[in-house]
Amino acid sequence: VGVAALQLARNAGLRAIALTDTAKHDFALANGAFAAFAHKDRTTFDRVMEITGGRGIGLSLNSVAGSTIAEDLMLLSPMGQLISFGHLGGPPEGSAADLLMSHFTKSVGIRVSDIYTYYRLDPAGLSATLNKITLDLQAGRIVPQVFEVQPLAAAAKAHASLESGSARGKAVISID
């Protein structure tokens, strides 16, 4: 999802900042990031504030959760939005009230999103979105990055590479 989000942001003329492992910075930049910083680096906050002119970011797309929700809230600009759509790092740490109240004067917002709710509440909207994504794929505006292709019998190996953080792109399972 991260690579597609970077490519879509680039295509829309937005300046996306990728927070990822240092080893993946070149990969993120090649796929549309305006800048890439190490998500565990203590200087990331200062560097993000520097390139945003002290304002912060308007939108955070977060698939990790865990402690990163609190970290992303710190990076948000006034009226900024955080969309959490995954929990790779476990559930968000801390209470929602504590997280939001510590940023009350910035009027930030948090949204939790999943495709199942979208499907249940707006199947026509989801269909239109998927059709748009299909057109973007066909036109080369979104180019999936494949890290590895494994046979179905090696699905556990492919999953392990994703969990290890070493993958740069998608692991594809072949059923041939």
From TrEMBL:
InterPro entries: NAD(P)-bd_dom_sf (IPR036291). GO terms for molecular function: mRNA 3'-UTR AU-rich region binding; NADPH binding; quinone reductase (NADPH) activity. The keyword Nucleus does not apply. Keywords: NADP, Oxidoreductase. One of its GO terms (cellular component) is cytosol. It holds the Pfam family ADH_zinc_N_2. This is Zinc-binding dehydrogenase. It comes from Rhizobium tropici.
